[in-house]
Amino acid sequence: MANINLYGYRYSVYTRIVRLVLQIKEQDYDSIEVDPFSDLPPGYLDQHPFGRVPVLTHGTFSIFETQAITRYLDSTFPAHPLMPKIAKARARVDQTITIIDNYGYLPMVRQVFSNRVFAPLEGAPVDEAEISIGLEASHKVLESLERFAKEGLILNGKGCTLADCHLAPMIDYFVRAEEGHMLLRAYPALNTWWDGIQGAGILTATDPDLSLLGPKI
Length: 217
Description:
Layout: E1 4-8, H1 13-24, E2 30-33, H2 44-47, E3 55-58, E4 61-64, H3 66-76, H4 87-121, H5 128-151, H6 162-174, H7 178-184, H8 188-200
Parallel strand pairs: 1-2
Antiparallel strand pairs: 1-3, 3-4
């Protein structure tokens, strides 16, 4: 059986998404730490010409971009399928992933979480204006996802899909900020989904352990 290697940054939500899929698929893999905000390992740009994470190798096959990686894993390892059979539900999975990538990651993770939670742990300054901008932009994202959760085709607690895998790490970071936690509670269907994800414990094994962070000297 071909070896699986995952190149990624411990605190990256996108690396965590892939780790979550590998966990659900019950696949062993080797994890290689790559910090895209620091010096990249020699030859890494040959694997990812844009210098980001994650990258997955499976034997001699190498692939980057999180959506492509998770689709590949779901197709390659058919146990515990992560795409619904119903066309409308599959479309909602694709829509959720696109929404969270294009409209959710920046405000929820980079603006709210990174400033309110990550920056203080590293001894870096907090930008309150960025947090406010991020919270404002997050409303529309959560409103869209609330409609999907109410509709019930996905984000319904009845089974895990790639939408759950892509969304959960983003929400996990977002609600670590008190403002994010309070905002999510305003969307009852999505909050119910989140309670179910937490209760299932599927995020536990991929927790990035922020306690390891500390001020940079």
